Structures are given as C-alpha cells and as structure tokens.
Amino acid sequence: MELYYAVPGLGAVLHTVNIRYSPEDLVYTINHAGDEILFVKDEFVPLVSAIMPKLKTVRKAVIMTDRPEPPQVKLPGIEVYNYEDLIKSSSPYEFGDLDERTVATLFYTSGTTGPPKGVFFTHRQLVLHAMAVAISTSAPPYELSVRDIVMPLVPMYHVHAWGGGPHAMFLAGQKYVFTGRMDWGGYILKTISEEKVTYIYGVPVILYLLLTHPDSPKYDLRGGLKYGNGGSAMPEGLYKLARSRGGIIVINGYGLSETAPVIAQALFNASMLGWPDEKKENYLMKGLRQIPLAFIRVVNDQGKDVPKDGKTIGEIVVRSPWLTPAYFKDPEKTRDLWRGGWLHTGDVAVWDSEGHIWIMDRLKDVIKSGGEWIVSTKLEDIISTYPAVGEVAVVGVPHPKWGGERPVAIVVPKPGQRITEDEIKNHLMKYVEKGEIPKWWLPDKIIISEKELPKTSTAKADKKVLRELYKNVLSS
C-alpha cells in the first residue's frame, strides 16, 4: 500500500508484477517494462535469484519482510537494500508537484495468444477512476459510507486491487482491512468476523471457498455483508448459496485490465428500487449499468448499436477518461483495441430498452456451432444450480464429424458430494423443456472431475487450458 503512493508520488512508474505468471512471463514483463528497481517480499527471493541473470535493466532490489530481523540477501550484480532499514535511516520527504498526465502505474494482462500486454495509467486517470467508484459505491445497492469496513479479496498486483483498496475506499473514508497472505484455512472467515467487515470483493471462486470451507458454519455472516463480484459471471447456484448464508448480498461489477478496471456495476436508480425481489436478484447477479463518466455501447461487427431488445448479442465497447490509451510498446494491438475510437472489450452482451447491460460471454469463449452461438456462461449458470455442483466450466471443442465446435462441460462436485453425467443431463433437460435453452445447446459430453478447475492468475477458470486439455475428447 505504501508503494502505491510513494512510487507514483516521486514521479516514477509503479509496475505491479503478477507473481502468478510463469518465470518466463515474469522475465518478459520486467524486461519489457524496463524495470530498474525491484521491491521483493522475502518469500520471493529464491524466484528472483533464479531469474536475475535474465533481467536486463534491474539495478537495485529492496527486500521487504514481516520478520523482526530482515534477512541478509545477496543478488549477483545489483545493489540490495532492506526496506525497513531505508525507512529508519531516511528523513521526511517533500513530494513535489507533478503534471497530472504523468504515468503512475503499469501492469500486464494475459491474452489468449502471444506474450502479456502492458497497460498504463496516469495520475489524472487514477483520480477520476477513484472518484467515480467512490460515487457509484455510495449508491444503492452498495450504499457504502464511512461506517463501512472493507476487506478486498483480490491481490494488490491485479488491476490496482480493482481500484478499491489503494484509491476509492480511502477516498471515501472507509476502514480498510489487509489480509496478508490469502490463507483460506479459516483465517479469512475469522478476520471477517473479528473485524466486523461489511464489504468484501473478489472473483466467484473466492466466495465459493469462503462458503464451503469446513470452518464456514462456525461464523455468523449475517448483518448485511456484501460481496462485490467481478472477474467472471456469478453462477446462480453460488448466488443462492450466498443468500442462504444469512442473506449475503452479491453485487455484480464489470471491468478489464485495460479499464483500470471498473466501468459498470449493478447499480439501482430510483425506478428500480420498486422492482419485485426476484427481478432485483436477477439484476444483482447479472445486470450492469455504467458508472459515472463511463459510456458503454453494445455493437455489431460493423460498429453499429444492436437493438435494445434484450436478445440481440453484440460486443461491449466503452469510452471513459481513465481507459489505457495504448498497449505499451505495441502499436498494432493498440489499433485493434481502439478501432473506431472505442475501446473493444472482447465481451459480448445484450442490452434492454432502459440500457441495462447483460453480459453473455467472452467473445473468445462463445461456442460457435453450426453457424450459431452457444453462450457458455448460460450453461454454466444452469449447471451451477444443481445442488451437488461446486465448480463448472463449459468450453467449445472441435467436433470431428460436424466441424465447428460443440460444448463440453467440466463439473467439479462439492466436497463430499457425488454427481453423475446423467444427473447433469437430466437437470439441463428441465431447462430445455421450460424453453430457457434450445436442445441443441446441450453439451455433447459432461466430464465429472475430482480435481479443481485450473485457474488463471486472477483465480478464474482457465478456459484456454481446458480447451487444450479436452480438445480431443469428442474424437475418442
């Protein structure tokens, strides 16, 4: 947290390194960014030692530790300092004025192909983003105020910790609880209870881990606890599980690395407060409205708005003052990102007559079968409502006979539960009979796995890995 303010305050650029990248990608991003000084938590010293010979621009390293005595670390060819020693030996520093257009932060986002891409943001952009998020989270259904206690469950290297921790929550005067290591052995639940946390946020799998942990029943999660969901769609089954645990309120949010990240949330306006509870819950789970100063459209391949009929699918494009202006040192991908003067998100959605947006899928995850689209998240949503299902991912894999893709579902049971393929098929058929999905959407194969789904560096199901793992499953 100190580095989030100190480094940009100097006029330097803070590159938050994704520690879940492979060593190869770590080396690539550090070299591509031209990093000169590394701040290294002591537990990562062995990793840094291993990759140091490949780092071309690093001149110094500062070791950070929670131990009473800092470790004595030597790294070949560079100067090494201890963070706390530097603090003790320094005198107060006077921060000077900076042009608001000075770049403050840089980090990298993984794509489906090629190396990670760098995105960067100025001081002005971060301030405007923090103000917009603080305003939006003060409105219903968040209604956060100085009385709230916030504990983010996202790593601080990931998209400014979603902009809440380092910036918006402090701006709004809310108490902020640091978790340290994400130790799920009941520690997070214990901290929520002891610190009387009222708002937490993270990806769906984090909420799932909290609610299914063996220690979870020991803790009373009632009293208006709210969970801000982002990163991927909230499965209906998980939403209902959260509601059954003392009425935890789950609120959908949306953004990308390229958008700093927040551009939309499940916000209520005055007319929506009178909606029936069932309609409200569906909106909280899946719906979105743009936050202040963000402008969102849903467009077709020609860049024209699709009808606001709640049915026609298009890509989400966006403008706001805080979007990354470019991919760092990558003009070709930048042109594709900003084609037509709007940032292309790669997410497909529908919007209704009032402009509410309902995300359907990632463009790369939509399954293309027989010239038509199958929305993987809709199938995942339905499968998640089967009581014994813990995790589920649906991916498109090549079909050897018909060509194109067909859906395959990978299902992980809840701890201690058993599921059969027929049970899932019968569950899906109920939704076919009700007319909620067409029969040809049904997965060609349902795989019951005892292993948890592979995850990306942000704890989302890694569909790229799953597609590769099961690419031949319909051929056998």
The computed structural class is alpha/beta
CATH class wording of the largest domain: Alpha Beta
Shape: globular
Please tally the β strands and state the result. 22
CATH superfamily of the largest domain: ANL, N-terminal domain
CATH architecture of the largest domain: 3-Layer(aba) Sandwich
Number of domains: 3
Portion of residues in helices?
25-40%
CATH topology (level 3) name of the largest domain: Rossmann fold
**Using only CA atoms, what is the Rg?**
23 Å
Low-confidence stretches: none
Arithmetic mean of pLDDT: 92
Approximately what portion of the residues adopt beta-strand conformation?
Answer: 15-25%
| Total of DSSP H or I helical runs spanning 4+ residues | 14
Instruction: Report the major sheet.
Output: 11 strands, mixed
Spatially, the strands of the biggest sheet line up as 8-7-9-10-11-12-13-17-16-15-14
The N- and C-terminal alpha carbons lie at a distance of: 51 Å
Structure summarized in a few sentences:
The chain contains 14 helices and 22 strands. The chain has 476 residues and is α/β, with parallel strands linked by helices.
Written overview of the protein:
This protein is of the alpha/beta class and 476 residues long. It folds into 3 domains: 2-98, Rossmann fold; 121-362, ANL, N-terminal domain (Rossmann fold), CATH 3.40.50.12780; 367-469, GMP Synthetase, Chain A, domain 3. The protein has 14 helices and 22 strands. It has helices spanning 2-9, 23-33, 45-51, 83-89, 123-136, 164-171, 187-194, 204-212, 236-244, 277-286, 331-337, 376-384, 421-433, 463-469, and strands at residues 14-15, 37-41, 60-64, 79-82, 103-109, 117-122, 149-152, 175-176, 199-202, 226-229, 249-255, 262-265, 287-290, 295-299, 314-319, 343-351, 357-362, 367-369, 372-374, 389-398, 405-413, 445-448. An 11-stranded mixed sheet has the order 8-7-9-10-11-12-13-17-16-15-14, with helices on both faces. Strand 10, helix 9 and strand 11 form a beta-alpha-beta unit. Helix 5 (123-136) crosses helix 6 (164-171). The radius of gyration is 23 Å and the shape is globular. The N and C termini lie far apart (51 Å). 38% of the residues are buried.
